[in-house]
């Protein structure tokens, strides 16, 4: 009878362990599905950042092109024989107030805070799979 009780206790323990194992497998499957979904989201986010960075670079290049054109027009107007120095100084004041740093070579008149550049740099975003290897080993 003692042996039968021990076998029954062992059988019940095995049943509980089997149930625990099944719950753990189900949880693992849910977590792996969630991880896969998050990896897809991360991939899409990286692609979106890359697209936006390309758009920004194109826009910045266009801005610089337009600023160069504006600078040439401004210089051309400044070389024109004006009737008085008053008109020339008025044009300079208008250009300085209207365009600000846009007419200063090498300076950008961007409203974008450049300190955010590191946040948008998708090369900083990485996923290290070595952590997964350690966990699964």
TrEMBL record:
Coiled coil located at which positions? 14-80
Can you name a GO cellular component term? cleavage furrow
Q: GO biological process: any one?
A: Rho protein signal transduction
GO MF assignments:
GTPase activator activity
Q: Specify whether Coiled coil is a keyword of the entry.
A: yes
Which keywords describe this protein according to UniProt?
Coiled coil
- Specify the protein name: RGAP1 protein
Instruction: Please give the organism.
Output: Ibidorhyncha struthersii
């Amino acid at each position: 009878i003692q042996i039968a009780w021990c076998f029954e206790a062992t059988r019940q323990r095995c049943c509980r362990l089997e149930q625990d194992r099944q719950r753990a497998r189900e949880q693992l499957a849910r977590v792996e599905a969630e991880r896969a979904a998050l990896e897809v989201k991360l991939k899409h986010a990286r692609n979106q950042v890359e697209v936006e960075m390309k758009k920004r670079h194109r826009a910045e290049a266009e801005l610089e092109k337009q600023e160069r054109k504006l600078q040439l027009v401004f210089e051309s107007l400044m070389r024109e024989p004006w009737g008085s120095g008053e008109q020339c100084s008025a044009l300079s004041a208008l250009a300085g107030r209207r365009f600000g740093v846009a007419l200063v070579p090498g300076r950008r008149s961007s409203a974008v805070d450049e300190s955010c550049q590191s946040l948008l740099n998708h090369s900083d975003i990485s996923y290290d799979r070595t952590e997964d290897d350690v966990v699964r080993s």
